[in-house]
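Input chain follows. Return structure tokens only.
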Amino acid sequence: MTHTIYHTILSGKAKSNKAFAVLIDPDKLTDQGLLSTIEIAVKAKVDFFFVGGSLVVTDTLDKMVATIKKHCTIPVVLFPGSPDQITSKADALLYLSLISGRNPELLIGQHVISAPFVKQSGLEIIPVGYMLIDGGTPTTVSYISNTNPIPSNKNDIAICTAMAGEMLGLKLIYMDAGSGALKAIPTAMIKEVAKHIQIPLVVGGGITTPEKAKENCMAGADIIVVGNAAEKDPELITAISNAIHSLNK
């Protein structure tokens, strides 16, 4: 098993470089829409494709990942909402533990069930502490996971949760306001969490402008993830990518 993707992330963090991941939900893109998104992402020098969703009801995951791999060299990282969202055609898997919630199934239960299949897949496995932050509206992930998000004004809870995840040995912290969030995670919370952990910090949800993406990076996010906004306006990918990469040396 290789560790190429995680080493790339660590290397970027060591250099204070910021990265951009476009999140693709297999249920929401047509074949033509996917090809168009790939073309835009390549030109914009997107760093990663994250693929997955809270509720994937189609069987297009395998085909979608294969299409991305066929048409570009951007690494494909699975961002699964359930144990069956796995394909060996990807490069890596974010093995998510929902540390902001208290649902044991999403802390360890589903991992026990999926572990044999995940190990067989040959994917690079990246253990992730997933933290759902209140984005101003109920989201699919909060409903499906049967958990409450961390209130967006409770920096202390977010800090302690991220610290606990790091001390438990998780390799990334992923703060997410959820798909379709009305508001992004407050910059102050991102800054405080980044200050208290050493591992890379991923931030997503509610990011709809290049300015917000850049602001989150400056607050301490190492990787910015945009999905919903890019689905509505694929050209936004270029603007956000340029804004994020303008911070790199």
